[in-house]
């Protein structure tokens, strides 16, 4: 497995092709994000090149004059690679490498490389390998093999312990085995999740490096990996914590989203993201000190929509409020996003209010049902406690009366098991 820390940092030049008249601040933001990606991958960006075009050149993405300029920049800085902010075709890569005589990568390759470097669990490594193979299969695999021999370093790492096969049939065979392996892991995860049914489930989502893991650590008082780098968290972490009313709940943290997150990764990480898909409430963590906070919100919302969870109740949490020096920025965000919460996970600011809101959001989802359990059926009471949240209990002369809260998604299953004990139709209400 690749270890960025043990490799000599490579020198890179980044390139962006933007439409004519594009907003310069947005272009710079995209370049800055690419710089951060390369920093995480183990490279230093020594210069950048931007060209405005109606559409990328079919042969080299940039025009002939810019290619010549790029050649000079590579020589001047002794760069080891050129990285484009958008995906390149195999023909564009081939033509550009012939011109600049160093390896040419695109944004997707860099992200895949970072995921490969940060993957620790068997599941994450399997997901990354599958994503890499899906990316490489249509992109002239023999060219990739040639690249890895000629240049080495970032973007040329094999997608696992084995080297990339040149035979496309072997690719597909390997990919099928990886999918089967992920399916087995997904079954195991499903069993684990069923064992946690009945507990309130919250999932942290957000742009990469927004502070989700820091919030996870402070809310659950657990030891989770925190690093000020993109994609420091790849594996899903689930930890228990207590809501203000005292009930036990679960909080999950998983991979952050990013602009142009490769579709191969989204597909491969679906089993990891299942914790997000099945959460009762999403906690959308946003770095409010970032200059393009609204763009980050939009990217996360689009990604959630592609996963099919846009209808899940979501609490918008602006983190890193302690880093915002202009109060008007916070005022504008509060006006634009009613109901949002401002916190600082690092400094513990406003976390009590956040927990209260999390409980309120969950309680709003609960469907309250009254059950009358005759004493001759007392053996079922412990099962009910395991299956759901008991809000109130009253031991009468003839039966045990339980008021329980059932998540909307579990209502049919709950009804099928306990309908004979249901005293009245389920209703959504405030806690008893």
Protein model, in words:
The protein has 432 residues and is α/β, with parallel strands linked by helices. It has three domains: 4-113, Rossmann fold; 196-364, P-loop containing nucleotide triphosphate hydrolases (Rossmann fold, 3-Layer(aba) Sandwich), CATH 3.40.50.300; 366-428, Alpha-Beta Plaits (2-Layer Sandwich). It has 15 helices and 14 strands. The strands form three sheets. It has a six-stranded mixed sheet, with helices on both faces. Strand 1 (10-18), helix 1 (24-41) and strand 2 form a beta-alpha-beta unit. Helix 1 runs parallel beside helix 4 (107-118) and helix 5 (122-136) packs antiparallel against helix 7 (168-194). The longest helix has 27 residues, at 168-194. Residues 1-6, 140-147, 160-165 and 425-432 have low confidence and may be disordered.
